[in-house]
Amino acid sequence: MRAILRSAVQLLCSLSLGAAVGCGGDGEPPLLSTGPTNDPVAVTIALPAKQLPIGAEVQATATVYDAGHPVAVHGLTWSSTETTVALVSDSGMVKAVGPGSAMIRATIKNVSGGDSVVVLAPPPPPPPVVASVAISLSDSSLTVGESAEGRAIAKDSSGAVVDGQVVVWAIDSGATIASVSSTGVVRALAAGTASCAAPSVQ
Q1: Residue of 131, 145, 196 whose CA lies nearest to 168
Q2: Which of 42, 83, 140, 163 is such that its CA lies 20 to 30 A from the CA of 194?
Q3: How far apart are CA 155 and CA 135, in angstroms?
Q4: Cβ distance 63 to 70 under 8 Å?
Q5: How far is residue 190 CA from its own chain's centroid?
Q6: H/E run at residue 186
Q7: With bands split at pLDDT 50, 70 and 90, how would you rate the model's confidence at 38?
Q8: Is the confidence at residue 7, as pLDDT, over 70?
Q9: C-alpha neighbours within 13 Å on the C-beta side of residue 12
Q10: What is the 3-state secondary structure (H, E, C) of 145-176?
Q11: Radius of gyration of the chain (CA)
Q12: Which helix (H) or strand (E) holds 5?
């Protein structure tokens, strides 16, 4: 009875050993999978444009990697280092709100990556165009030898005053009757009528 049991045990051991060897093929151990582990180690961010005017929107794209493999993940957290410059939504939509630079970041499981964006300041408005110049004198009736101060007010087409203009003064008619300086001082030279003008402004 003991001999029979011992033979049975030896047979079972042989069968188990044979099954173990057969699984590997030709006596080698089985191969193991080396695919992605879904444990992120790096995050990269891509922006379709690095410079934006105020008000523009672009979609940022995040790629998450495990050990060298891009992996699909959920639960990215988006943020901007300068919210006065650029805002970013939960889906990665970036909106330019003010001039300056900001870093757009995406984070998952304490692993983050970012990319910078520059928001451009708006261009200055074009200079106003002078449409008319109004001339006035401190005294329009002078005796020979007297002087009067001239004043010129430049205006645009809507009638708004245009400041900072340099007026070019001239005697429009009666150059022998009166003279005018570069600063608009009119001097009576002889009896008669003269006309003072500001033909151009700069």
Answers
A1: 196
A2: 163
A3: 11
A4: yes
A5: 65
A6: strand 185-188
A7: low
A8: no
A9: 6
A10: CCEEEEEEEEECCCCCECCCCCEEEEEEECCC
A11: 44
A12: helix 2-24
Structure confidence at residue 47 (pLDDT): 95
Residue 4 parent element (H or E): helix 2-24
pTM of the model: 0.54
d(CA 45, CA 48): 10
Q: How far is CA 92 from the centre of its chain?
A: 16
Rounded distance between C-alpha atoms, residue 13 and residue 11, angstroms? 5
| 193 alpha carbon, distance to own chain's centre | 61
CB 178 within 8 A of CB 187: yes
Beta strands per DSSP E along 21-130: 42-46, 51-53, 57-59, 61-65, 70-71, 77-80, 86-88, 93-96, 100-108, 111-120
**Residue scoring higher pLDDT (113 or 2):** 113
Residue in 97, 116, 118 with CA at minimum distance from that of residue 105: 116
One-letter amino acid for residue 128 of the chain: P
Nearest alpha-carbon partner for 147 in 138, 135, 156, 136: 138
Our CA angle for 139, 145, 149, nearest 5°, is 30
Region 104-119: mean pLDDT is 93
pLDDT above 90 for 153: no
